[in-house]
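Morning - beta,beta-carotene-4,4'-dione inputs below, output right after.
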Amino acid sequence: MTLTNSGVQSPLLQSFQQLSTDEQLALFWYIYTEMGQSITPAAPGASTASPEIAEGLFKQVKELSFEEQLQLQRDLIQNKNTLITREYGALSDTTKLLFWYLLAQGMSNSEIIPFPEDYQLSDSAKGLLEQIKALEFSQQMSLFRDYVSPMGVDPTEAVQDKSIGL
Ligand code: 45D
């Protein structure tokens, strides 16, 4: 669960994973609003992201009710075993990041449950946000990959759950 790609920022990874599920979502949203402009989806072929695959998964989420969309995002963080969390688990780390980016964009244009206006970020999440803002762009990228990588369920490793047939 705490396996990292970057190796160097494990304290920031741990602090993130120690937050509650909703705090993780909220912090991730703040990260997006802080750095949304600086994210330029790389030119096709320039990275290991698979835009069609991220889009395909995003479209499935878009069809859900707001409540189900929020549940799905909580399920991803909590590694709950569902069809969508297994599909997510099969993506590359960069495609996972692109998927979260699409979700955040969807929140901005009302396709995805909007972020509550009155939400108060906890002090620990605020502190973490400040530390993240101080990192260089490339360090931020590897940290975010480390955040989204262990989310969902790896379909090649999960044991079968007979109650849901997956
Ligand atoms: O009511 O190499 C609460 C690519 C509770 C290109 C809530 C890239 C209360 C290739 C939980 C607060 C672009 C992929 C509600 C690189 C309540 C490439 C809901 C880079 C409703 C490097 C909260 C991609 C919710 C990058 C729903 C950097 C919160 C992508 C949801 C970065 C938060 C993406 C979301 C980021 C946050 C996405 C969806 C930072 C998403 C953040």
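Note: The chain has one domain: 10-148.

O.
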